[in-house]
Amino acid sequence: MSLPESCERVLRDFYHERFPKKAFIPGETPIPPSGKVFDASECLRMTEAVMDGWWTEGRFAKEFELKLRSYLGRAFCITTNSGSSANLLALSALTSRRLGDRRLKKGDEVITVAAGFPATITPIIQNQCIPVFVDIDPQTYNVDLNYLETALSEKTRAVMIAHTLGNPFPAQEVLDFCERHHLWLIEDTCDALGSFYRGKLTGTFGHISTFSFYPAHHITMGEGGALTTQDALLSKIIRSFRDWGRDCWCEPGKDNTCGCRYGWKMGTLPKGYDHKYVYSEVGYNLKLTDMQAALGVAQMEKLADFGRARRENYKILREGLRSFEHFLQFPDPTPDADPSWFGFLITIKPGAPFTRDQLVSFLNQRKIGTRYLFAGNIVRQPLFVGSDISHRVIGDLSVSDNVMLQTFWIGCYPGLSSEMLQFVIDSFSEFMQPFTSV
Q1: What angle is formed at CA 243 by the lines to CA 241 and CA 246, rounded to 5 degrees?
Q2: Taking the model in full, what pTM does it have?
Q3: Dist CA 111 CA 132 (whole Å)
Q4: Among the four 159, 178, 252, 414, which has the fewest Cβ within 10 Å?
Q5: Residue 407 bridge partners (DSSP)
Q6: Which residues have CB under 8 Å from 105's CB, separation 6+?
Q7: At what angle do helices 59-72 and 290-300 cross, to 10 degrees?
Q8: Distance in angstroms (rounded) separating the CA atoms of residues 288 and 296
Q9: What pLDDT is attached to residue 437?
C-alpha cells in the first residue's frame, strides 16, 4: 500500500528541513572516505514499510531480491542482515551434507588473500576450515594468480576472495582455476557492486557471490547484505542456514507452500511432524527487516548514477595527483576491468622523503578522511599472532607487508563534490611543496 500524497508531501518537506544542503568550507567540512547518499525517496520507502506493519522480511525484501538478481542476471538472490553475514552464509552453506562429496568438512582448506577484510576470512575459521593465505599483485592490490597453483593441496576445496576497493580481481581466470580443480568459488563483491570484468558484472562469476549494503558501500540498507547464485540447491541451502537451519521453505507469514506440511517423514521424527519445525542444518537467524529492504529498493534506482560518479571521481583524483607519481603509487585497474571504485588507494614509494603517517596526519588535520587497506597483512594481526588458529601461508607475503606499512586510501564516493575533490588535490600539493621545490 502506497503512502497518501499528503503524507508524501509532509515527508519530503521534513526531509529538506532535516537534511539541508550545506556549503563546503575547506579545512572545516569533513571529507569522509565513504558514506551514504540518499534523498527523500529512501525516507518515503522506509516509512511505507513501517506503515505496512509487517517489519520482518516481506514485500520489499522480495522486490529488492528481484531487482538485484535482474540487474546481475542471476537466477537466485537471498537477502541477509549484513555483508559479513552473507560471507558467513556462503561458506557455511558449502558445509551442508546435501552437497555430498563436494561439501566442506573440518580441516579442508580455502584459499584467500592475506591483504583482506576479516569478514572474508573469519567464516573459514568459524567453520573449522583452514585459510591458505596468498599474496596480492602490487599494481591492482588483488590476488596474484601466480600463487594459486602453489597454494593448491589435496585438502583444497574452495577459493574465497574479494574484489579490492571495487577493482575486480581476474575473476574468469580464478573461476577457470576453480573449475579445473573442482573447487568452489565464493566471490566477495561487497566492495564492487557495479564493476565489470571482461564485460561481465562482478558478482556473476562465483558459485556464490556476496554483497554488502553497509553505509560505506555502493548502495546502502543501513545494514544489509545479499547472496546470489545460479544453483537452485545452493539457494535452498543458503536460505535454510539463514533461517535457523529449518527445512521448510515457506515465506514468512505463509504456511504449507509444499502442500504437505503435516505429511513429511524425516529422520527419526514422527510422520507428519510440522514441517515448519523441522531443521536440517546448523543455522542462524540472519534475516533483514523490510525497512532495510525498502531502503535498498530506493537505492537500486540510483546505482547506475552512483557508479558513474565513482568512476568520474577516480579520474579527477588520478589526474589531479599525477604529478606526484615519483613519490606515490596509485591503483591501476585490473586489465580488462572497468571498476566502480570503492576508494582511491595510495602507496608511498620506496625512497619518498616522508612517511605514510606524516601524509595521513596532514590530511586528517584538514578533515580529509583516510583508511588503511583493511587488515593489512592479516597474519600479523593479534587474531593470528600467538594463537592456535590453523592456517597456511604461501611465500613471504611481501606485498601484503608493504601494504600494511605504506598504503592507505581516500574517498571517491558519490557524496564528494567537485570542491571537495579539488581541496583534496590542493592539500596534496601543499604537503608535497617542500619536497618538490628546487
Answers
A1: 80
A2: 0.95
A3: 5
A4: 252
A5: 347
A6: 95
A7: 40
A8: 11
A9: 66
